[in-house]
Every structure is written in C-alpha cells, then in structure tokens.
Amino acid sequence: MRNIFVIAIILIANISFAQTTPAWQGKFEQMGQTLPTPNEYRTGSGAPGPKYWQQKADYEIAVELDDTKQSISGSETITYHNNSPDVLKYLWLQLDQNVLAEENSLASTTTGALKDSAAAKTYATQVSDFKAGFNVKNVKEVNGKPLPHTINNTMMRVDLPQPLRPGEKYSFQVEWSYNVVDRSVFGQRSGMEYFPEDGNYLYTIAQFFPRMCVYDDYQGWQNKQFLGRSEFTLPFGDYKVRITVPADHLVAATGTLKNPTEVLSQSEQTLFEKAKTSYDNPVIIVSQQEATQKEKTKSSQKKTWEFSADNVRDFAFASSRKFIWDAQAVKLGNKTALAMSYYPKEGNPLWEKESTKAVKNTLEVYSKFTIDYPYPVAISVHTASIGMEYPMICFNFGRPAKDGSYTPQVRQGMIGVIVHEVGHNFFPMIINSDERQTTWMDEGLDSFVQLLTEIERYPDISWNRGKPTGLAPYLKGEKSKMRPLMTNGDQVIEFGNEQYAKAATGLYMLRETVMGRELFDKAFKEYAQRWAFKHPKPADFFRTMEDASAVDLDWFWKGWFYTTDVCDQSIDQVKWFRMRKEETDLEKKNLNVAKGDLASKSGKNYSDFSSGPEPISLTGTDPRLNGEFRSSVDDKAIMQKLEDKNIYEVTLSNKGGLVMPVIIEWTYKDGTKEVERIPAEIWRVNEQKFTKVFVKQKEVVNVVLDPKQELTDVNVQDNVFPKRPDSSKFDEFKKKTK
Ligand SMILES: [Zn+2]
C-alpha cells in the first residue's frame, strides 16, 4: 500500500513538472546525425554523388493467360547487371504472389477480434480452397543447368555458380505458374473480376513474374518481406514481353506494342494510328458495340501480343474481350505520349467521358512540376474497386450504377483515383523510391501533386485530401493511434491519413505557407530532376529541398516527419498600450523608466480591449549608448512617431508541440483587416511561448491566428482575441432561445 502511494506522488510530481517547465527540445537544431552521413554515392546537397551507382535488370518474358483455368504460366530470362563495387555471391528475387500462400506470414500475423454478426466474407480467405502463390518450376542457367535456389516466404535467393564481379552481368532463367486471384474474395493489387451476366473475365495482372530485388549502396539487398501493404522496391531495366491470350482479348500493357499488325484488326490499326495525332479528343478504337459483340462469341483461338519497354522498374498488363478502347495524343515538351483507356461497358458512360481526359490532365500537370513524362504511353484500366499503379499502366475504380447513372461522388472518386494512379508514374515509377521502407515518398509526394492537378484541372469539384483543412479533423483525434511519417508502412494504423494525407499536407503547407510557391516549386522540380530514373532516400529529398531554396527546413522535417506533434497555437493575451502624451516633451519632464511586466503592475484585466489602452512611458536613450557614433538616436523623433500609435503586446503559446509559422489577422476599428505572416523561427528561443510587440496606426478590435486555417491547428477556439463564447455552446443557446 505504502509503496503504491509513494509511486503515485512521484508520478503526480513528474506530471506537474512537465506541465510547468517543459524541456527545451532543440526543435530548431540541425538534423545532424538523424540523417545518414553524406558520402560519394549520396552528397550532403541531396544529389546523387560522383560514385552513385545502381543495378539494372533486363527481362525477356513469355506468359500465357489461361482463361478457362484463370491461371498464368510463364518463363523469363533475366539479365542482371552488377554495376555495384561489390562482388555478389547470390541474387534475391521477389515472389509477391506468395503473400497469399498458406505458409506465408500475412494471414498468420493479421490481427483482429471476433465479432458477432460479421459478414461471411470476413472468413472467406481463411476457408477458401484457392491455391495461391507461385509454383516455381525451375531456376536454371541459360545452358539449362539447374541453379540452387531457396524460397523464404515472398523472397527467393538464387545462388550463383561463380561470384558476380563489379561490371559483370549474368543471365538465368525461371519458369513458373500461379492461379489468378479473384478480387471479390481476396482483394489484392493483381487479380480478376468475373461478370456473371455475360460469363467473361477482366484480368488486371501484375506481380506476375519473379522480379529482381534492389541491391544498393544504402542497405545492400532490399529483401524485406512483402506483408501485403508496404509496396515494392525494384531496379530499372528493359523489358521484352510476349503475352498469349484468347484471340478475341484486347491487351493493354506497359510499353510499346510491337506487333499491331498481328493482333489488331485493320480498322483497329487505322484508328490506333489516327489517335497518335489526335490531340484534342480521344479516338474510340474499339467501340462499346464491338466489345459487347465479342462478349457473346468467345474465341477458342489464341494470339500473342508483344510489348517492349525501356528503363522501367516493372511491367503489368490487362486482358479481356470486354474492353472498349480509346486513345489520344498528349504533347509534353518535345515528346508526344499516348493517353489511353480500356474499360468494359460497365464503366460507361462515365469512362468514355472522363478517363482518357484525366490521364492527359495528369501527364500535363505532373510534367510541369517534375520532368516531362518520358514514356510512350499512359494507360488507365477500369476495375471494380481498386486503384493501383505500374509503369505506363494503372487499374482504377469508378463504376456507374447498372442503368449508367452516377453521382457526383462517383465521378469525383474516379477522377481522383485516375489522377493519383497515373501520377504514380512519376513517384515511384520514375523517381524510384523504396516503397517497402518509406511509403510517404511515393504516396505522399504523389497525393500532393495529385491535389495540384485536381485544383488546376477540376476547379468545379471541392478537393480535400492534402489540404490543411482536410487533415485537421484527423489530427484532433486519438493520439495513441498516430505514428510519425518516418514509420514503416506495415506498422502504421492510420495508413491513409498519415502516409498519404499528412505527407501531402506537409508539402502543401511548405508550398503555400512556409516557403512560398516560387522557392518550393524550384526545389521540388530540382529533386525530381536529380532523382529521375534513380533511387532516392528520404535524406535526399530533405536535403535537396533546402539546398535549392536556402530555407532551413530541418525544424519542419523534425516536427512533421519524425514526431506526431500537432499544431495548436493559442493567443494567451493581447495588451494594448499608448504612450503618455507629455513624454514627448523631453526637456520639461523627468524621464520615467518603464520596466518589467506592465500588466502585472497595473493589475488590469486584459481579456478584451474594453478598458482602453494602458499608458506607458518611454525613456530617452542613455547618451553613453551613442558612444563614438556620429549620429545618435533621435529620441524625440521616435517618440513623436509613436505618439498616436497603438502598441500591442501579444503573448502566444504553442500547446501542440509542433513549431509552425505564425499568421496573425488584425481587424481594425474601421473594419479593415491586415494579415501578418511570421516565420516559424519566432519560436526558436522559446519553443512553448513568446511575447512580441506590434505597433499599429489603427485601433485593433480583433486578433485571429491562422485565419484561413492553413496550419492544421487542432483547436481554433483559442486562436481568437477577445475570446468568443464556445461556438457549440453558443449554437445550443441560440437553438433553445428560438
Ligand atoms: Zn498511391
């Protein structure tokens, strides 16, 4: 008993100590050791260093899609280029399909309590007979000799016959098969949808071949297991892919179609060519009528489509006889890309109207903020319920009701997801960050440019995600669920609110509030240019943004990315003063020395401006201070200038812990307003509280902090002086008195 009592007293003492004298946390100290030490691979400026290197993996793949068994079988020759200074004894490959395999760790480490009356679907994956995962049939040298290999969940190690030296390349072959996942049961990024009304499938296929892991200067092999959420890390390479499908299927894929004359009808070829110079509107290459006709006459023949893609980090495709297909040309710098859409009739009339247009809008706006889109095509494929990105191709939701009608929300959701997924071409497909380790580098940066695109190209819709006002409600919520942005995605609870929205909002605030558009845009573009077709890390982004702007942002990275501190600024007090008139006549008066806290001296209540200004006295400058300087301070002139001025002493406190700029809106007696913007460094000597004096010509009647709510302040009640009655209570009161 006694022991408990003593502990309780100590705890209380600690809490009160923490509240009254919060420790200085060095919020404006440089990040120093928090960031990795710069080296000749990655410089202190955030740019790739003189000895930067990256590996390359080239693929020749042949796959067949079996529409009767809904399975994929294939073989590949991978040529791996060792550009590193290291000797490699083994290679690591990713077997993503294994994430659903019985022996994998995803199902066994997924948590959740049992619920009464849960939907049967909740248990579907646990009782399913579906056989998931790669069946790796063989791994061999190009001469046919088997290669020793070991599968560990979603990773496979291939042991090389001889160590691979710097500058050397090595080719080997893998053969495999797997069953395609039904999205209605398993979700997943890659999968199929079945349409019972016409008995056809729509396949959106990805992670369909054993893919090389990244080996880099930062962590060696990036072979962190796939747990279903944190995405992928892949090296660049050149792809040649042959895809065999039913003869009446239309295939959309990463890269350039190499054999149009073998797989397209004469009319399709003509219209496809026409689309390449159609800059204003999409050309419909396969119409709804033609697609609907094919749904009925299922071909038992096969066709092989050939694609090639250079300098991409992955390859994906979609295949169905249900596809309608349209395309148009988009001019980007000195290049022209084809924006294309593939969708079943279930996506119309919405998809025909909006999809390709959204692809075009995305390519244009992203190119402006990063680099000109360098690939030949950009494709949007319709799916029932997911949004997922791959180089040059992505799968997007947005389906009207059966009668073709759709709400504004369905249209907004569809445009939003297409802009987002096409935008992923830039982050992380070209600016190739490590998705498995750092989600915000692709989802956050992408969601941010997505918002810029939406605001610019769809001003009729109200967009929220990525704006401070969109994030503030989340930041007001349960703190124990929050994780710093630098947390690995697999450990995050509020994944969308943090890795997407909070990261995007951070960049939005940097652009709109902290740095300004000109400095931000230049630095952001510099980052994109430096790291296009390379592998950036968080420090490369942080350093480049400062290097190109001369804005010290270490405080921002520390607060916004490394903690869960929130912005909660408060106006504690505003005191109003005016100079005593007689003080200006220096000869007649003995000078009073005003010292210390004036308010406490007068004992006055400063809760509003009603009791008028407090008189203050100024002293003449001590002549000794003028010293040997020829011009001394003209006390009289200063005092005359202050004579009719209103002097305000404002005390602000930082209740949320996050240091942010201070934006003050002054409302004057004549109804006019003035907004004053003060950099975050105002908090640099005292992170919790500051007092500052402002001299104003006009009389102030109201002071508001962050008037446009651009700082994600979680409590705006205390941002106003004089204090307003609690608005919710006030509304209740109004209701009652009605
Ligand atoms: Zn995304």
Describe the secondary-structure layout:
Blueprint: H1 2-20, E1 56-66, E2 71-81, E3 88-94, H2 105-108, H3 124-127, E4 135-141, E5 149-152, E6 155-164, E7 169-179, H4 183-186, E8 191-195, E9 200-205, E10 211-212, E11 215-216, E12 220-221, E13 237-246, E14 250-253, E15 256-257, H5 260-263, H6 266-275, E16 283-286, H7 288-296, E17 302-312, E18 317-320, E19 324-332, E20 335-343, H8 350-369, E21 377-382, E22 388-390, E23 393-396, H9 408-423, H10 425-430, H11 440-457, H12 468-475, H13 495-514, H14 517-531, H15 538-547, H16 554-562, E24 569-579, H17 598-602, E25 614-616, H18 623-626, H19 635-642, E26 646-654, E27 662-668, E28 673-678, E29 689-696, E30 700-705, E31 720-721, H20 727-737
Parallel strand pairs: 1-13, 20-21, 21-23, 24-25
Antiparallel strand pairs: 1-2, 2-7, 3-6, 3-10, 4-7, 5-6, 8-9, 9-18, 11-12, 13-17, 14-18, 15-17, 16-19, 19-20, 22-23, 24-26, 26-29, 27-28, 27-30, 30-31
Helix pairs in contact: 8-9, 8-11, 9-11, 11-13, 12-13, 14-15
The chain binds zinc ion.
Residues 420, 424, 443, 446 line the site of zinc ion.
